[in-house]
Amino acid sequence: MGLLDSFEKGLERAVNSAFAKTFRSGLQPVEIASALRSELDKKAAIVTRDRVLVPNSLTVRVSPADGERMAALGPALTNELDEAVRAHAAKQGYSFPGPVSISLRPDEQVATGTIAVDSVTAEGRVEWRAVVEIAGRRHPLSRARTVIGRGSDADITVADPGTSRKHVEVLWDGERAMVRDLGSTNGSKLDGVPVGQAALSNGQVITIGRTDIVFRLVPLAAPPQRVSRHDAATELYDFRGGDR
């Protein structure tokens, strides 16, 4: 089963079944992924025999009604879209000139069920920001030490009686990260395995009490150094009756 085939299943894992019902009608998340994939195919430019360049900055404009439903998914949607775009690029042998950036924006000029994609080929350097996701909400980490626990004096407070006031700390120096248990009563786990101290990799899950904390590295692009003049264009995708 391909990534796009399992796209909606991935989203369902990120939300509860009650919310998933809102996607039974109207614009579907998988249609956004399909539009982004088509955008890469249409804008692919052969640079050399071994390099095909595609836009790396993509803005998806949808109707306010569709945008409201999509926004309720939070980071789960953009994470899935990012994975879908990268997987398609890898499969097709495409190259990105810089960090990949995908954003969704409501636009009153876009009709319901229609997707407008703006794409730009922009160069830039990658700067990484470390965040932790707790109950669907992202918390940026400081450049030193971030304490997580149920106490009001913790940097990030979790409402979980199974956690200590200062349960774990996450250390981040801008390039590397580490998790350390602070002598908690119930201990901590990393990807389901008890942990006292360990290096952190993107996507690993720290568990304290009944709370899962997902560590993520988010690429931040510097201001574009160059924009290809033919790439700053808009493609309109209407899933009520094909592209138009």
From TrEMBL:
The keyword Phosphoprotein applies. SUPFAM superfamilies: SMAD/FHA domain. It holds the Pfam family FHA. Coiled coil: none annotated. Gene3D superfamilies: 2.60.200.20, FhaA, phosphopeptide-binding domain (DUF3662). Residues 146-195 form the FHA domain. It comes from the Bacteria. The keyword Plastid does not apply. Keywords: Phosphoprotein. PANTHER family: NUCLEAR INHIBITOR OF PROTEIN PHOSPHATASE-1 (PTHR23308). This is DUF2662 domain-containing protein. It comes from Microbacterium oryzae.
